[in-house]
Amino acid sequence: PPTECADVASDKDGVYTIIPKGSSQEISVFCIMRGGNKWTVIQRRINGKEDFYRSWSDYKSGFGTVQTEYWLGNDNVHLISANGDHDLSVYVEDFNGLHAYANYSHFLIGDESTKYLLDITGYVGDAGDGLHDGNGMKFSTKDSDNDINSGNCAHDRHAGWWFRSCDYANLNGRYNDTHGAGNYWYRWRQNTTPLKKSIMMIKKK
Predict the structure, then answer these.
(1) Is the pLDDT of residue 140 over 90?
(2) Rounded Cα gap, residues 37 and 25, in angstroms
(3) 133 φ/ψ angles, rounded to the nearest 5 degrees
(4) Which domain holds residue 138?
(5) Is the confidence at residue 180, as pLDDT, over 90?
(6) Which residue of 27, 76, 102, 151 shows the fewest CB atoms closer than 10 Å?
(7) Number of domains comprising the chain
(8) CA–CA distance from 158 to each of 7, 49, 161, 163 (Å)?
(9) CA 107/CA 200 separation, integer angstroms
(10) Which pLDDT value is given to residue 129?
(11) Has this prediction a pTM greater than 0.90?
C-alpha cells in the first residue's frame, strides 16, 4: 500500500488506505488531488461536529471521521513528514465563503520523545504566517502543557496545538467560539474570528 497520498495511483479526491513508512499499521486518510499534486490531509474541520478538545493520547493516535472532521494523529504525521521533505498547505475559510491559503515549503514534526516538535519554514500565501510562532515549539494538550506561557494555552484555548504563548493560530479550537478559544487563524485578518472550515495537508516534494 502507499505510504502517503503522493503514492496513490488515482487522481480523485477521497478516502484511501496507507501505511506510513516506519509503521506496520494501515490507516485511512483523505487525499486531495490538485493539479498533479497529491495531498495527505492531516487536519480538517468543516461543521463543528467533532470535539477537538482532546487528550495527549487522542492527538497521538488521531481521532474523528476521515470523510468529515479529523486529526490524523501525531505519530502518523511524524512518520509521514519524516519520510522525505514535505510541503504543508493550510486552507482557511470563513462563514462568508471567503478563503485563503498559508503554504510552507518545509514541514516536519518530531516523534513523541520530542513532544512532536514543530519544524516549519518557507511561508508564502495570502492567509498570513500563522505558524511562525509555533515553529520550534512542542505540541501541547490539556493534559500535557509544553508552551512557554505561565498558564496552559491548550486548556485556555480548548485545543491541542503547537502553542508558544497562546498565539496566532489555533485551528483545533472550539468551533464557532467567539471568545478567543475558537478555531481561528489570527494572521489572516488580525482577529480571532472563528473559521467555518480549515484543512491542513502535506505532500512530499
Answers:
(1) yes
(2) 25
(3) -70, -25
(4) 5-204
(5) no
(6) 151
(7) 1
(8) 35, 15, 10, 12
(9) 11
(10) 98
(11) yes
- In sequence order, the 6+-apart residues with CB closer than 8 A to the CB of 34 are none
What's the pLDDT tens digit per position in 82-116? 999 999 999 999 999 999 999 999 999 999 999 99
Distance CA 150, CA 60 (A): 24
Residue 3 has pLDDT above 90, yes or no: yes
Rounded to an integer, what distance in angstroms lies between the CA atom of residue 140 and that of residue 128?
Answer: 22
In the DSSP assignment, the letter for residue 7 is G
Residue type at 108 in one-letter notation: L
Q: Is the pLDDT of residue 119 over 90?
A: yes
SS3 27: strand
Residues 6+ apart with CB under 8 A from 5: 16, 18, 29, 31, 32, 33, 38, 39, 40, 41, 203
Half-sphere exposure of 121 (CA within 13 A, CB side): 3
Q: Which residues contact 16 (CB under 8 A, 6 or more apart)?
A: 2, 5, 8, 10, 28, 29, 30, 31
Cell numbers at 144, concatenated: 500535557
pLDDT per residue over 26-70, tens digit each?
999 999 999 899 999 999 999 999 999 999 999 999 999 999 999
Cell numbers 472550515 correspond to 197
